[in-house]
Amino acid sequence: MIHKKVPNLRTPRAVFIDLDDTITTFDLTSAPAWRESTEWFVNTYEPEFSVEELIAKIQETKKWYWGDQERHKRGRENLVLARREVVMEALKRYAGERYFSNTVEEMHGKETDGTFPCVIVNVKYTVEERVTHAEEYAALYMKLHNERIRPMDGAVEALDAMKELGLRLAVVTNGVAESQREKLERFGLTERFEHIFIDTEIGYSKPDPRIFEYALDKMQIQAEEVWMIGDNIRWDVGGPQQLGITGVWINSKQVVLPENYEIVPDLHCDSLLEVVEVIKSIR
Asked: Are residues 65 and 82 in contact, defined by beta-carbon separation less than 8 angstroms?
């Protein structure tokens, strides 16, 4: 659905497009991978908490971890480490700080300091083994998540339609360069783009306007001739709008914004195919 279109939209000569949850799935395939990996962890090592309880702690921890700007940047640069830290923190949030300490056996049948509920820790595993189990859990999640990543519905068709319209296309994404480029290669997307701009290769991350300035300079194009399309309203709309780039929000996760939210997209759609419809209508 095309939710919003400002009057007198400028026709683009070039389009910058985000990768995760705009062209390919990412967060949208996270939940099934967490469930399957959590079921494996609980069924294999039989901790004293259920799958549902641990998934709840994982979700709580993810919000805490990725909600901090510095952790977010560090985590995007090393997703393996980030997933391990999320798992470790989630287990601590359920069972207490001593879950991974040498005094963990003292918790057996005793109350904690009140921050966490009383938990009977499975003492048949050493602390070192529990650390290894947590690392296996995080690694399995990463594997399952990566296997589930797919192009978004209609995304490839939309890219081809944009090319047929004569638009210059570039990816502008945050993330680990090796991982981002692997996804583009896996789905045969690399050749569809004139440039691929990844923050970890450039040194500036969205929403920093300097990553968009870098892309504009490399493509020798003016900001008013460009649309930036992405699912993160702060990164993909608010950041580029500071330079005069048209900000297009793909609300793939069906986010409900607070009333009078400070960032207002120039165009708000549910998919890339809908963006193509709008471009055709204003040419």
From this structure: yes
Under 8 Å between Cβ of 251 and 40: no
State residue 122's pLDDT score.
Answer: 55
Q: How many CB atoms lie within 10 A of CB 24?
A: 22
**Per residue in 20-62, pLDDT tens?**
999 999 988 999 999 999 999 999 988 878 899 999 999 999 9
* 172 closest CA partner among 106, 102, 232: 232
Q: Work out whether strand 267-269 and strand 4-5 pair parallel, antiparallel, or are unpaired.
A: antiparallel
Question: Alpha-carbon dihedral of residues 149, 15, 224, 271, nearest 10 degrees?
Answer: -60
- pTM check: above 0.90: no
Query: Which residue, among 165, 120, 203, 115, has the nearest Cα to 14 in the 3D structure?
Result: 165
User: Which phi and psi (to 5°) does residue 269 adopt?
Assistant: -130, 175
Confidence of residue 123 (pLDDT cuts 50, 70, 90): low
Contact 18, 252 (CB under 8 A): no
69-94: pLDDT as tens digits: 888 888 888 889 999 999 999 998 87
With helix as H, strand as E and coil as C, how does the chain read? CCCEECCCCCCCCEEEECCECCCECCHHHHHHHHHHHHHHHHHHHCCCCCHHHHHHHHHHHHHHHHCCHHHHHHHHHCHHHHHHHHHHHHHHHHHCHHHHCCCHHHHCCCCCCCCCCCCCCCCCCCHHHHHHHHHHHHHHHHHHHHHHCCECCCHHHHHHHHHHCCCEEEEEECCCHHHHHHHHHHCCCHHHCCEEEEHHHHCCCCCCHHHHHHHHHHHCCCHHHEEEEECCHHHHHHHHHCCCCEEEEECCCCCCCCCCCCCCCCEEECCHHHHHHHHHHHC
